[in-house]
Every structure is written in C-alpha cells, then in structure tokens.
Amino acid sequence: xASILPTVPRFVLTIFEPLSLLAGAxxxxxxxxxxxxxxxxxxxxxPLSANSRMVAxxxxxxxxxxxxxxxxxxxxxxxPRVVRNYVIALLIADVGHVAVTCWVMDYExxxxxxxxxxxxxxxxxxxxFLFSVRTSYxxxxxxxxxxxxxxxxxxx
Length: 156
Prior knowledge:
Blueprint: H1 7-30, H2 32-37, H3 50-76, H4 80-104, H5 107-111, H6 118-138
C-alpha cells in the first residue's frame, strides 16, 4: 500500500495529487465555459462549440479517472516495482502536459509569470512541482521505500 512510499512522496502522491485531480475533474462540470476560457492566461469567455464543450467535459472525466487510478494503485499495492513504474508513467505524462501547455501559450504569456491565472499555475507550476517530487523520489532523494513486512510461515 502507499505506506511503502517515503513521507513526502506519500503525501504528495496519495493526498495532494488526487485532490488536485478532483478539482480539475469538477471544474469543467461546474463551468465548462470558464474552464475552457481560462486554459490560457488573460483569455476571455467566449461561447463554446459543442465540440469544445465535449472535449472539456471528457478532460474532466480523465482527471477523475487519473485520481481513481492513482488511489487504486498507491493504496493497494505492496510492490515497490509497481509504484515506481506508475511514478515513471506519471513523470513522462508531466513532461507532455507542460510541453503542450507551453507550446500552445504564446511566448509573452508564457514568460509573464506574474499574470498567470490559476489554470496556468496548475498546468505548468503544479505539474512542474509534481515532476520534481517524482524525479526526487525515483532518484532516492527522499530515502528508501518502506518495504512491507511479510508474515513468516511456520513449517510443520
């Protein structure tokens, strides 16, 4: 279970990240127009096409899926290899998430960090933070995994 993780990555991966993903899942369902408009700093609300609405709601559903998968993996496995492979997959996805966000943002908005909105901070800042925690965990900077103790069977 998640207790095999050292303290900092355990908190970040089993509490902070699922809550962040739940917030990302709920946001497009509460206000799809706002969620889409605020993906880029200083964007204005505009009427959405049915396609844009569908993509935003599906993204919210994917955030919910990611939260559930993370909880399922990290709270049920006692295998350090499973946890490490899961973290590696997330690390790769972090790179793609930040790269796509930076690619779509214009250079002025990207470098004007003081005017980033909550979505830019989430898409770049929080994802970069998660990337750094994942990298630090994989490099062993938080210490070793806490391996579960197994019951010793008595032989008759």
